[in-house]
Amino acid sequence: MVTTISNGRFEIPRYTVAEAARFLGVPTSTLATWAKGYVRHPPGRPAVIGAAIVTGFKAEPGYASIPFVGLAEAMVLAAFRRAGVSLQHVRRAVAIIENEIGLEHALASRRLYADGAVILYDYAEAARDDHLTGLTEVVSRQRVFAPVVEEYLKRIEYGRDDWAARVVSPATTRPVVIADPERSFGQPIFINGGVRVEDVLDRWRAGEPLAEVAGDFGVPPEDVEDILRVALPTAA
Known about the structure:
Elements: E1 13-15, H1 17-24, H2 28-36, E2 38-40, E3 48-50, E4 66-67, H3 68-82, H4 87-101, H5 110-127, E5 136-139, E6 142-145, H6 147-153, E7 156-158, E8 164-168, E9 177-179, E10 189-190, H7 197-205, H8 210-217, H9 221-230
Antiparallel strand pairs: 1-4, 2-3, 5-6, 7-8, 8-9, 9-10
């Protein structure tokens, strides 16, 4: 188990599955599979069971079940899926990383950023696993993550304890929204303005002009527009 716990990053559920999915820009059903696992019953064959690969807690529908560490883990999984790796092979990649790094919540550790690409590249080469080669590449003789994965990982900021401490939403091309357990109880806030996304969108949904709402909260109008464009995190 994790021995370094601060700011409730590991043990406090902060997001519903739908909220976390909107923050990450992935379908709610996808994140539900990652956080809760699944059981499928193919006709005429034994049931197929997939365990959860994102940290989550049991909760009634509509209640928060994903802690901050789960959000960070799901960020990495979203990157792997964006790289074109199937869920089956994402599960294999996660198992390899956790076994080699030897940490629970390895996807939320700085060591993933430092060592993960080498671990996966070496495994894929040794096992001749073409399904995982899309996650890494060789640049200047260094084994590094593929650009799409690197882009996501750069949006994770790590704390002094080497665990994820802040996550910038990948749902927008520009960095617009961040989740930080030390601010607004971890709820998504605008990077420019520092106010909760939900508070801004509530005013907009009430019918107030976008420019007026943005001005009152000190948020650039283009940032609000970007969030509305991707319906993040509670605009839908």
